[in-house]
Amino acid sequence: MPADSAKQRTVSSITLPGLISPHDLASDRQFAMTLARGLEVLRAFTAANPVLSNREIADRTGLPKPTVSRLTYTLGLLGYMSKDADSQKYRLASGVLALGHPLLASMKTRQLAKPLMVNIARQTGCTVNLGVRDRTDIVYVDSVRADGRNEYLPDIGSTYPLLVSSMGHVLIHGLPRPQKQALLNYLKVQDKELFALHRQGLEADGRLFAEQGYCLSSGAWDRELYAIAVPLRGAPGEPALSMNGTLYAHKNARQKLVDEVLPLLKQSAHEIEASHGLRSG
Hints:
The protein is α+β, with helices and mostly antiparallel strands. The chain has 9 helices and 8 strands. Strands 5-4-3-8-7-6 form a 6-stranded antiparallel beta sheet, sandwiched between helices. Strands 1-2 form a two-stranded antiparallel sheet. Helix 5 (108-124) packs antiparallel against helix 9, helix 6 crosses helix 8 (192-212) and helix 7 runs antiparallel to helix 8 (192-212). GO terms for molecular function: DNA binding; DNA-binding transcription factor activity. InterPro entries: GAF-like_dom_sf, HTH_MetabolicPath_Reg, Tscrpt_reg_IclR_C, Tscrpt_reg_IclR_N, WH-like_DNA-bd_sf, WH_DNA-bd_sf.
């Protein structure tokens, strides 16, 4: 099921993008606390909880309710949130979409990957997805489905915990060792139950990734969904990505993914990285 990973937390312990280890905000004079709090308010909304009251936002962020009230009022005036007249609750507004589009439109790797993803989907019947890491989640930046019988087609921008997906495992195991260990330590602390539930699969994928350069998962959040993923280095200035192929309710899913889909994913990743000058030929 889609992740609803927002948990109660105080802004003094915000995990900054790309940084899992604690950051000393008290001594960082460059850090804009009010801005950080406003962004945490926006992050409180999820697909599972698209409408929230000030009290609910306060509970999810750990911020005082009066602070939340000022922030939601301000974000509403700026067009990033809207308020329902009857319930007096808030939802995200179109201003948030306007913020995300320039990022998607400027991702060179995403543009290069699109026709290759379409080709893989048409050849194999898979849904093919492209994702990047956002804190402890994988966020989808593109998705292609050629076979209507494959029910899995995540929305662009949807998120799932790193621990439950093959793409997430790729992005964990592809990190340099110190960063990987810091992330794993953080994941253990952030959600002990989720980490314990998926630890065995994560470790198995770690061995698979080290030996053969891919991760393979099945049934992590849907027992009929199988996925195989490979790493993809982005263009200079872009984050690391992962590309996967998924099959839903397929009789020989694991074998098909390894035999047919994996070679196409690896070849596509090679072509994209070569176009960035990260590989030869």
